[in-house]
Amino acid sequence: MAVLSKEDLIEIRVLIGLGYTPQQIYEYRIANTVRGARDWKRTTIQDACKKIQAQRGNVERRHGSGRPRTVRTEDNEERVARLLQSPPRIPGTHLSARKVAGSTGISRSFVRRIAKSRGLQARRKTKVHRITIPKKRRESGFFGPPCTMNMSTFE
């Protein structure tokens, strides 16, 4: 069935109430140039009529129709947020999105979506090299500022 707007379904409901058959509604829509001819198919109108009659004239979408949400529950969102955040005094101990996905059973894409909606960033942790003590001393100015004397004075 093609997608019909709410206004289209209301119009079909009114025409059904006036006693039109799906065939007559189709011909009415083709002949009606005030609202513009639409490329509705006859089967689309028949399906819409069946749906409206089955719902006793209601054109709203039934509550609960569609696939239920199974992954995006509050419990899962809390678990993902807890695993993606490092404790305040232990930075860098959060898990990557891949490890969170493996430990919770949620796909990586949903982990990233949950992180984005919570304002978190699921980033891969990168290992950095350790700075040796002599290099720390050299770069931190442990021995004082570097020599800035002009060597031309000694010549």
UniProtKB/TrEMBL annotation:
Residues 55-77 are annotated as: Disordered. This is Uncharacterized protein. It comes from Acrobeloides nanus. The lineage of its organism: Eukaryota, Metazoa, Ecdysozoa, Nematoda, Chromadorea.
